[in-house]
Amino acid sequence: MNQSPLQTALSRAMIRWSLTKSTQLADSPSSTIFKVEQNGRNFAVLKLLKPAAAQEERRGGRLMNWYGGEGAATVFDIHGDTIFMEWLDGGTLGDAVRAGHDDQSTTALCSVVGGLHRPRAEPLEDMLPLRERFQPLFDTDVRAWPHTARDMYARAAGIALKLFDRPTAQIPLHGDLHHDNIMSSDRGWLAIDPKGLLGDPCYELANAFINPLGAEDTVKDPRRIAAMADMVAERLGYSRKRVLGWASAHAALSACWTLEAGEPIIWQLTMLPLLLSAYDQA
Fold it and tell me: Which of 86, 88, 107, 152 is geometrically suited to a Cys-Cys bond with 74, CB 3.0 to 4.6 A?
């Protein structure tokens, strides 16, 4: 019987890395993920990339490999469109926030970023410039936004342009670091699923200001926004103003992606005025 392309890729990966058992965990638009075993003792993950997202996923895989397991799950090997990596069986930081441990989660976030942003000897090529990532924000027709929110769109886009006009260090960035992309392990909290960007380190925690899902009352509390900005500035030494500027700009970028998908931007419109207000006060 003929195998599907997915079955063929899985079979080849099982042979290549001497794996003995596979269990499908997830099937997303970007990849199919399997939990795999080596003789029933060691567990790992196979991520089989789909053509539509292979370029971005390969970029993320190269970044994970470059991290070398510090602050992120370890990538054991990459072959073509298959990534062979560490198995993490703990919960996410999002689970911790939803259980009422937001302050501790922000501390963990900062610790993870500290590991990801540690200088490394080898340079990393071919990451996506942050400016390109933000292009949808600048290309969006303001008329796509609700009439009452267009001033917020303009403000956030203006803040983004100001941030790009005042460049800082350009380093490899995870690019999608929110609470549910950080998992618990016996090595501590580790990041997964990076986008692989290049840009201002102050951007790295922007997405965390509007996450995690399922903890909306916590996330939209202005005191939480201020406390998170304070901790990022204190623990990582990043500019509080730039961190809040990127958080505002990212919330608007997220809204543009959501509008492009034809979905409502209720959550972004809840968070944007709060983030812009915090930015103004910084």
Answer: 86
d(CA 180, CA 155): 28
Residue 110: name the closest of 213, 8, 238 by CA. Answer: 238
Q: Is 76 exposed, middle or buried (0-12, 13-18, 19+ CB in 10 A)?
A: middle
Per-position DSSP letters for 58-104, written without gaps between them: HHHHHHHHHHTTSSBPPEEEEETTEEEEE---S-BHHHHHHTT-HHH
Q: What does the pLDDT look like over 116-147, one tens digit per residue?
A: 999 999 999 999 999 999 999 999 999 999 99
How do residues 203-233 score in pLDDT, each as one tens digit? 999 999 999 999 999 999 999 999 999 999 9
Bond prior to 212 in cis (omega within 30° of 0):
yes
Helix, strand, coil shares, percent, the chain, to 5: 50, 20, 30
Q: What's the burial of 131, exposed, middle or buried (CB within 10 Å: 0-12/13-18/19+)?
A: middle
Give me the active site residues, please: 176
| Residue 159 falls in which region: left (phi positive, over 0), alpha (psi -120 to 50) or beta | alpha
Distance of alpha carbon 138 from alpha carbon 154, whole angstroms: 10
